Structure formats: C-alpha cells, structure tokens
Amino acid sequence: MTNILEAIVNIVKNPVHQVKQHYTGRNRVNNVGEALELFIKDAFADTIQLESQVEKMEKYNQIFSWLGNQNHPPDMMIRQGDAIEVKKTQSANSDLALNSSYPKATVQANSSMITQACRICEEWTEKDLIYCVGHTSDESINSLWMVYGNIYAAHHETYQIIKEKITTGINEIPNVELAETNELGRVNRVDPLGITNVRIRGMWQIQNPRRVFSYLYKSSESVFELVAIIPLLKYNSFPLESISKIEYLQSESQLLINDVKVNDPNNPANLIPAKLILYREGLFDV
Asked: Per-residue pLDDT tens for 188-222?
C-alpha cells in the first residue's frame, strides 16, 4: 500500500516538473491542471516513468479504490489508505477555490457531497485527507505543497453550522416554494408566473497552505520545491519501510525533515507536533 512518504520519495527520484510536456502524447491532457493531477496519481502509484497505459491502469487498480471526477471530491482514495484532493493555483499565494464543498479535515463516507460509487468503493467510514496544492505555470509545476486536512481545516461541525444557519434563514422566507437540494438552498417559482427559480450555492475558499504555514517555511520558488506537513502521529503510523526510505533520502542530503509544531485548526491555543519535509532541487540552505 502506498502513502504520502512513498509519493515524496517517487517525486524526488523522478523530478518531472514540465508535467504538461511529460503527459502530452501519453495522455490526452488539455491543460497543466490535468497534468498535475496525473502526476500526483503517478507519484502515489510509483508510475511516473511507466509508459504502458495498460500497466498503469493495472497499477492504479491495485493502489486506488476511487478515482473521482471534477464535481465530487475527493480526487483519489488509496485502498485502505488516505484520500487525496488536488488543487492548482497559477498565483503563488492565491486562495484555493473549493466551490460548493467546504474545507475538509477528513473525508467521511456519510457525507452528502460524495457519490454513492465513492461511498461503496471499499469498506470505509472515514479517511484522512491530503491536500496537494500545486503552483503551476502554463507548462510546469513551480511548487507542490502536501498538507493533511486535520492540521489545515477545522472539524466538519464548524462549517456545517454556518451552512445550516444560512439554509435555515432561507427556509424562513415566507410564501416561497423550497426544494430539496445539497446546495445551501433552492427556491422555486419566485415570480407570479412561476417561471423563475433561485439556486443558492456556497462558494467556499481557504487560504493557500503556503500562507497558512508561512510561520514554518517561506517559499522562494527559485527552483522547484516540495513542502509536506504531516502530523507526527500520522508520520509514526506509516510502515517502517516507508519511514526508512524517506529518512535515507535525508541522510543523502536530498531532502530535509524537521520536527515542528503547528496551530490546532480547532483551537489555536494548542500546538500539534508535526514533521516538515522539504525538497528543493539542489538547494538546502534553509
């Protein structure tokens, strides 16, 4: 089974940053966003340099239980492992657009935002979520941040309360015809002819992790860089083989692993021990 440590090792050993060029011809990619998602998928599956699409499909089948679509998170789920959400920005510090899905600390099988196919793709109730945020140009990845949702976003209840209060307020509007919806609300037949409907959608955003965690590390992007922040409890839960692989890369001066503490998203008075993993192409004076 793969994990974030294995993915980092695969990226360090296969420094493919011109992702659009790498995937053009092998796959029908229309833009660098699609190429970024393929690159993340291949990093976790250890198939970055694999050219046979048949062999890739077989490896994906072994590694992933879910490979989602653009309208329903998450983008990927590792079989008996974590969920992965890929986000692309073309401005280094811009907020992430989550659209109708509020930030997630974890992914839950009972969420109304996931599909039934995702819900039954394997036996699961809740998965840790990795946000993979790539800052890209039109052709390449400039940087990649990988951050766990439970040190990035608050508990589900924090966002659910806001959503429910908005929906309750809409429901209290007199003399309107309300409709069932997974959005914040839908009001039908708002005019005398009954020909106009109103959809109320949440357009959620969250600050870019490079801004949220700027107290730990400030990006330079003079070269490609990968920054991963992993809660210590999660890091220690990975197989010893995976930990040994990434710590060997540190001993070979190919990346840095630092012990840090991050703010608890649910109570900033608390600090959560974590590992900061940094790979910068040929440069380690941090």
From this structure: 888 888 889 888 887 899 999 999 999 999 877 66
| Of 19, 49, 13, 15, the residue nearest 31 (C-alpha) | 19
- Closest listed residue to residue 91, CA positions, set 133, 147, 136: 136
Query: Which residue type does 19 have?
Result: V
Residues linked to residue 280 through DSSP beta bridges, in sequence order = 225
Name the residue ranges covered by the structural domains of the chain. Answer: 4-155+203-280
Indicate the burial class of 188 (C-beta count within 10 angstroms; 0-12, 13-18, 19 or more): middle
Q: Nearest CA to 167 among 153, 154, 179?
A: 179
Which tens digits make up the pLDDT trace of 215-253?
999 877 667 899 999 999 999 999 999 999 999 999 888
Q: What sign does the CA torsion over 267, 269, 273, 274 have?
A: positive
Which residues contact residue 180 at a Cβ distance below 8 angstroms, ignoring those fewer than 6 apart? Answer: 186
Lookup result for tokens 């998203």: 265
